[in-house]
Design a protein that fits this description.
By secondary structure, this protein is an alpha+beta fold. It contains three helices and seven strands, in the order H-H-E-E-E-E-E-E-E-H.
């Protein structure tokens, strides 16, 4: 087996690397809750509202999307997509505002954040910086979610 691996390493290594990358993408999608959200909120068309690329967010089980998100909003809903390279297991999403709840606002160290809950059934936490939340709120207009009353 070793002679086979030695002779074919330049061909086998990229295949293994791609398989690992794809596997990690699917695991992250399931861990974060993205895969669960995609069952109901997968965007089949293009999003035409304002978007902000290179954004960060934290979702379920502290899964971080650090600089690889495009986040957008318009009066119809919240748009989420990953950069093309990270799209495996992460189809673009559009969540109607009635499926998004403002959970809390706070600070971690000196950085203000806003935490939303995505999906009435799924209840996926989505923590973003307050500066991004302000842009989304402006784009959403009157449809921006209010705090949960439970």
């Amino acid at each position: 087996m070793k002679p086979f691996l030695d002779a074919n390493f330049p061909f086998i290594f990229p295949i293994i690397l791609i398989a690992v990358f794809c596997g990690v993408g699917f695991i992250v999608a399931r861990t974060s809750g993205w895969a669960l959200l995609s069952r109901r909120f997968r965007l089949e068309t293009s999003f035409t509202g304002p978007t902000w690329s290179w954004q960060r967010a934290q979702m379920r089980f502290a899964t971080g999307y650090n600089g690889c998100l495009t986040v957008g909003a318009d009066p119809s809903g919240l748009y989420l997509a990953t950069m093309f390279f990270f799209r495996i297991g992460h189809p673009p999403l559009l969540l109607p505002w009635h499926e998004v709840t403002l959970r809390k606002e706070g600070k971690i160290l000196w950085v203000p954040y806003v935490e939303l809950t995505l999906g009435r059934e799924e209840q996926i936490p989505f923590r973003i910086r307050a500066t991004l939340a302000a842009k989304l709120k402006a784009a959403a207009g009157m449809n921006w979610p209010t705090a949960r009353t439970t």
